[in-house]
Write a structure and sequence with these properties.
Elements (H helix, E strand, L loop, with lengths): L12 E3 L4 H10 L4 E6 L2 E7 H7 L11 H6 L21 H11 L3 E5 L5 E6 H19 L1
Amino acid sequence: MSLNKVMSTKLITLEMDDDLGKAKAIFDQHKIHHILILNDKELVGVITDRDIYKHLSPTIGTRNETPRDHSLLQKRLHLIMNRNLTTASENTTLNEAVLLFYDNHISCLPIVNDLMEPLGIISWRDILKVIALQYRQKITLEK
């Protein structure tokens, strides 16, 4: 099975000069764990929800928030994004993707075209879901 059958194509992206505040708002609003970072249309990085919270104070948005805490929201994404990308094409097989996840210790795999423009994304949760559904189908057929 190729990744184009299971990848999510509803991409949420930001530009590398956007700030942590914008990324935090997106993570708070959507149930996602990864945002693709673009420079024009080219994929140049990935930021995770863990990256955001690692760089923000736990007092953000509370009555204990300080001016310094609030200023951290202005930090640009290119300063904290992961630039060491592992990507795949939409024709990559699910088995090949599993090896990419395992060998590179990643939590998401952006699917890109030859120009490094994002076409989709798949996470380890998506892979686990596919395997679980395949297994469930197999045991149902065996009954």
